[in-house]
Design a protein that fits this description.
By secondary structure, the protein is an all-alpha fold. Helices cover 71% and strands 3% of the residues. 26% of the residues are buried.
Length: 307
């Protein structure tokens, strides 16, 4: 703070009090946050069998990364690359469908005048409901005798019925997981788009209507450009969620059937707490972190260049 051209200096007692009040949060970050990150990175370059003490860890160099990235351990490498492909399929599907559906619903909610608060509340239900409870509900819907098969049977579409359940067949398990994740990812992105639409100048729409622009042209030339910064945030959030997905798959399929829904985080869990190596599990974790970071930067740069 400046007063009379001179910089006011805070008394030593006030500075000491401020640092004292901040110290618990800083200490918590250093112990729980920074230490665990550094320890995880250290562990990724060591071998440590599950259940072993840290002192028994042996230096591995880049062997842990070679095992699953370059096929030094063929079985693990095959499982990792299959899991990574599934992660990328999930990420591409979630980003595409969540962005499109959320934007459509946000525009629709902005135009609704009767019962607007009710509809906004309904669309936010997945966000305030326990994610585990939601997954169990969807699991019941996808079961062999679940709601989806019963609806198809009542409509006479028996050829589309999944005999072993939609989560129990290789051809339908991953699409079913994607449906669950898209449904759960829409509310957060919907809020971002709905808030962004409030900042768009309505006079632009009025001017476009005078020029004879239809709804599609207004969306393409006014709404979408105005929402590009929000779209970047939405892509990064959904991309991160897709590449870090664990709960829905672990609860429903545990990566099955036959690895068709296996993702990297589930593989990491099995490697760390099964008969695998804690070091390799951490190495896989850092690999997926770097990939997430790189794809997020790529998405931001691509949208920035098209601005």
């Amino acid at each position: 703070m400046k007063k009379g051209g001179a910089t006011r200096k805070y008394p030593l007692r006030e500075m000491f009090t401020a640092y004292l009040l901040l110290s618990p949060a800083v200490l918590l970050f250093l112990v729980i946050g920074l230490f665990t990150v550094v320890f995880s990175l250290w562990l990724s370059f060591h071998h440590l069998k599950q259940g072993s003490v840290v002192s028994s860890a042996s230096f591995a160099g880049l062997d842990n990364f070679r095992d699953f990235l370059f096929g030094e351990s063929p079985v693990l490498a095959r499982r990792f690359w299959q899991a990574l492909v599934n992660n990328l399929i999930i990420a591409g599907s979630i980003v595409t469908f969540v962005i499109i559906i959320s934007l459509f619903l946000a525009v629709l909610l902005q135009k609704i005048t009767i019962g607007a608060k009710f509809f906004r509340t309904v669309f936010l239900v997945p966000m305030i409901t326990s994610s585990v409870a939601i997954v169990y509900v969807w699991q019941g819907i996808f079961e062999p005798k679940g709601a989806l098969n019963k609806v198809l049977e009542s409509l006479g579409l028996t050829q589309f019925i999944a005999t072993n359940g939609w989560l129990g067949e290789m051809s339908t398990a991953l699409p079913a997981i994607i449906v669950i994740l898209v449904w759960g990812g829409i509310p957060g992105t919907l809020i971002l788009y709905f808030a962004g639409l409030q900042t768009v100048d309505q006079h632009l729409y009025e001017a476009a209507e005078i020029d004879g622009a239809n709804a599609w042209k207004k969306m393409l030339h006014i709404t979408w450009p105005a929402l590009k910064p929000i779209t970047v945030i939405a892509i990064v959030f959904n991309l991160n969620a897709a590449l870090q997905v664990f709960d829905p798959i672990w609860i429903t399929t545990k990566g099955g059937p036959a690895g068709s829904t296996m993702v990297v985080n589930v593989l990491i869990y099995q490697e760390a707490f099964g008969d695998g190596d804690m070091g390799r599990a951490n190495a896989m974790g850092w690999t997926i972190f770097v990939l997430t970071f790189f794809l997020s930067l790529l998405s931001m740069r691509a949208l920035k260049e098209n601005k």
